[in-house]
Amino acid sequence: MSPSNSGELAPLPSDLLDLHPQPADMARLVREGMARTPKQLPAWFLYDEEGSQLFERICQQPEYSLTRTETELLQRLGPELAAALGPGTLVEFGAGSARKVSPLLDARQQSAYVALDISSEHLAAACQRLQQRHPWLPILGICCDYSCLAGLPAHPLLQPPLIGFYPGSSLGNFDPPAAARLLQQFAHLLGEGSRLLVGLDQPKPVERLEAAYNDAAGWSAAFAFNLLARLNRELAANFDPRGFAYEASWEDEQSRIAMALVSLSAQTVVVAGEQVTFAAGEPLITEYSVKYSPEQFGALAQGAGWRSLKRWSDPAGDVCLHLLERAD
After folding, report:
1. What gap in Å lies between CA 98 and CA 301, rounded to an integer?
2. Per the count of CB atoms within 10 A, which of 20, 75, 122, 302 is most buried?
3. What is the span of the domain harbouring residue 45?
4. What is the pLDDT of residues 218-244, one digit of tens each?
């Protein structure tokens, strides 16, 4: 049935701005990471096409409750969150597949949505999918590296006030100083009078945390080992995955899970044109996941120029949604 016969109008076309972010110098980042103690690579290296699919499988495992719990929290509290956020365009940082934002968009029908991500392909697909689900919603995708963006581009949808959205406990992939710098960047990009909704995983029993990042089905291990396959493919490395074991362990002093590929013996690997030596038992950190208590995050946010307004949690206290206001 055509729109004119059904009484329904076609969805608005979503818009996409490509700011042509500079490709990351992976070889340089690998050389720098291999020179650290312990050796560590940026967590985003994990998310090539195969890695992204593996992460989706991790999110479906019974041990990994973060995604389910946060999604349920957003769905249950959608109207309350919308009222607390107030008017303004919703800006999601690192939108990826943008699968968590719909409850907020449903509850904020008079708003607009802007998705920021470094992958133009993922961004276009996410915006198209959201436009079909929310046909009356003005949607804009911006392909950029928001971590070093000097400012948001001029666009009718980017008029103040702006409301940031950063779910998935992604902030936990950064150590606290880097997390503070990212929060400062969000404040800079969003501008005066802005608010920010951040989703964070919270500390919980060690057994649960370690199981969440080392699921019985083995998807977490496959996710980490895929990093070696990417280095072999893209940087002419010669990692033998049989020479490493995957581990996920809680580091209490830093309040974080450390995910690592641990060398099973002394070995030398060629990567990015350089020889890298591993001692037996030496880890290559693939990812950290810092867990913030409400008090810890409140202090971090305050130091980064934000004021805590309100927070919500699931009944078990596993996940928190923190609403912040820029402290001008």
Report:
1. 24
2. 122
3. 26-61+205-290
4. 999 999 999 999 999 999 999 999 999
